[in-house]
Amino acid sequence: MKNAFLSRLAVPIFGVILFVAFPSNVRAQSLNEESLKASYILKFIDFVRWERPTSNPTKVGVVHDPSLFRELQAIAAKKSRATRSFEIVEIDTSSDKIGKLSGLDLVYIGRNQQPQWAGIVKFARQESIITVSSEPGFLEEGGLIEFITLQNRIRFSLNLVEVDLYNLGVSSKLAQLSVK
Amino acid sequence: MKRLLRQAIHSLLSSSVRKKFLLATILSSLVTLSMFGVVYVLHEKSSFIEKKNEQLKSLSAIVASNSEASLSFDDPITAGEYLASLSSEPDITQAILYGTDGSTFAVYKRSDTVQIPVTSASEETSSSDSHISRSTQIYVEQDFVGTLYIEMDTTSLKASIREAVIIAILIVGIGTSISVLIAILLQKLITRPLFELEELAKSVAEEGNYSRRAIKRFDDEIGSLANSINIMMHVVQERDQSINDHNRNLEKEVAHRTSELRGAMVKAEAASKAKSDFLSTMSHELRTPLNAIVGMSSILASEKIDLELQNYVKIIQSSSDNLLSIINEILDYSKIESGNLELEESRFALSECLEEAIDMVAALHWEKPIDFFITIDPLLPYSVLGDITRLRQVIVNLLSNASKFTKTGYVWLEAKLANRPSDDTAKHISLAVHDTGIGIPKDRQNRLFQTFSQIDSSTTRQFGGSGLGLAISQKLVNAMGGQIVVASEEGEGTTFSFELSLPSPSEKTIASKLAPTATAVQQTISVSVPFSPLQESLSRLFEAWGMRIEKSGQETDFSIGSRLYGFEPRPASAARLNSLTIHHPLKREAKPFGIYSNSPFRLIEARNFIQQSVSEGKRVVVNESQSSKSPRGLPSSTTRILLAEDNKVNQKVFKLIMKREGFAIDIAADGREAVAAMLKAPYDLIFMDLQMPNMDGLEACRVIRSNPDIEQPWIVGFTANVESEAEPAMRSAGMNDFISKPVKDDRVREALRFYESHRAKGASLKSK
Hints:
The complex is a heterodimer.
Chain A: H1 2-46, E1 48-50, E2 58-63, H2 66-79, E3 86-91, E4 106-109, H3 114-127, E5 130-133, E6 145-150, E7 153-158, E8 168-170, H4 172-177
Parallel strand pairs in A: 2-3, 2-4, 4-5, 5-6
Antiparallel strand pairs in A: 1-8, 6-7
Chain B: H1 2-14, H2 17-72, H3 76-84, E1 92-98, E2 104-109, E3 124-127, E4 131-140, E5 143-153, H4 156-207, H5 221-302, H6 307-337, E6 346-349, H7 350-364, E7 370-376, E8 383-386, H8 388-404, E9 409-417, E10 426-435, H9 442-445, H10 457-463, H11 469-479, E11 485-489, E12 493-503, H12 510-514, E13 524-527, H13 532-544, E14 548-550, E15 558-563, E16 578-583, E17 595-598, H14 603-616, H15 624-628, E18 641-644, H16 648-660, E19 665-668, H17 671-680, E20 685-689, H18 697-706, E21 714-719, H19 726-733, E22 737-740, H20 745-767
Parallel strand pairs in B: 7-9, 13-14, 13-15, 15-16, 16-17, 18-19, 18-20, 20-21, 21-22
Antiparallel strand pairs in B: 1-2, 1-5, 3-4, 4-5, 6-8, 9-10, 10-12, 11-12
Helix pairs in contact in B: 2-3, 2-4, 5-6, 5-16, 6-11, 7-8, 8-11, 17-18
């Protein structure tokens, strides 16, 4: 009886322990993931060549992902140098303000923005803007880069089929790392 | 070592041109190809390393570039996969990617044994014996993303070098073989013309065939040499031809000239013979009448005739003597001028020759108030080789000359060693005749030796003579290898001197030859002669004999004094053993003290004086005149004597002479009669003239000697011939003695004595 009680009690205790202990870990993992993605986003730029004249500083827009935006800002501040500097902007495209993407070199599209994808992709292709998202199915919608988590590691897939529609030159070195 | 090297070089240089050419080619190609081989191997090695470095650099660059994304996006799996693709490169042993913090990002290892090195932050290439490695730092857009380290195995380098060495050896071997083959082919091209030239030169040297020509094959140096040789051969051939032609002409010319010369020689010989015959005839013809004059006058002189007639006879005698002397001189001179003078070379005693010469001259002038001296260096050789007759003739001539022109004072014959060094075989002897005569003016001295030259015509008138004497003497001395020189002061005197080099067959000197026995030495002697050269000469002689010279007046074993004509008398002091006085014939004392000797004083007299005194050991008083007289020594009057002479006057003269000597003779008018007379009745002695009609004396002598039925007589030849060949001819014909014409009674007596002495010896031998 006592053992049954203890067994019934152990589950909620373990759950509490997990609750107490995990949020910070999850946060930490989430932060680490954001930071890694932010770093990758800036590195993508190193492996892509635009056919149009590029802007300086390189302009990176973040749609609906404030934490990544902050991470980007932090990393960009460290990474900016004489030959290349970054400008990180947060963009809201919910009210069909696609035009706000104009002048960007790369745009990261956050969660729950699937309805916007078609418009953004279309605009991005016209403007040769690299489109990046962590949402599954982004590539199928015409997106260019999609982050994937494989074996607890952040990897990415390149839409090598439609890369030409963006009028961008993507390095084969980057292509080699593409999961798909 | 150096000698061996030198020998090797010498033998190399002495080898044939073909061998030298081959050796030079092989050596040069071997050296060149070896150097090429070494360079090739080194180049292969450096190329290999360079190639590997380039390959590594290139691979590093590619891998680094391809790893940029993996490093950037932290994808070690992709990086590892990519590194694994290096497995297709067999030399890559490992490749490692290091992260920015130096941690290993991705690794490729060909085998597990390979050790992963600690990363190197810097970009560098390093190498070791077995591998080379390269570290490459990887940047993406100036961001350092990691380091790539790739290591490459270089063990294949050794194999590659081995391969290169084998190739090099093959190249050297094959290349050298090819060069040897080429050299063999080429050397034929080069040496063949040389061998042809050599063969040509040998053939020309051996056969002397200058018509051959060298073949010019190419326009090179050898071709040029062949051209030059051909030109030279052509020139030599032409010259040879020219010389041959010239020689042929020359031979003809020589034959022609020889024929001419032979003709000329025959003529010359005929002329010479004619001259010789003429001389012989002339001497015979001149002497034959003179013979009668001399013979008759000598017979007349011995007759009891009054004083005036005796004076006439004396004049006839002296005139005929002079005439004889002149004839002799002329004949002598003719003979010398015609080149018929032949000098004998016989051994004779020099001192005796000189003493005989001065004796002869002194005897003729004994009544003159002049002294005759002879000084002979005792160190002169005793016997020499030469012509005694001619030397005596020269000395007599010079002494006669000196005596003729000296009224007071002395005539001195001096013989000494010349001041020139003598060699082993011949001695240089200086002979001089000094006088205190009238002297010869300087300006006339050079004419002295010319023919028929006297200082002036008055001389001839005053002193007589043909003027040929000195010229003949000079010619004779010239023929003997000397030269008479004259030194004279007018009114003071004259010296004629000459030097002769006479071979000396014996080492004996005059002093040693004439030395008295040992008991004579270690004696003392005083020499007191006012003529200092004689004093000195005698002193040297006695000293050479080991005697001690003491001053005059001291008691000595021997003493020599003098009573000369032109000097104060120096009587010999009383000596323990004996004393001797040298005197002039006119200065002899009535009561002599000790031994007397006429001047000139002879060496043999000095020897006898010492020797006899020592052996007798007592004082001896010898009357010189007594001692000089010899027994009559003539054959008995029964001796059968035959005269073969065609000239009636001479027959008569000879018969008278023989009659006076107590002999009756038979006469044959020619050789044939003489032989007939011998066959009829044997004669002991035959006086035979040489020149007779029908059969001459020589032929008659030969007939007699060759006839075994004839009891062989003693044959004395008469000859008016002064030719030197006369005596040998007479000896070879078998004559025992000869007398020169004109026949004088004293010469006849001498010949009779000689015969008697010979006969006595023969009788004595027979009796024994």
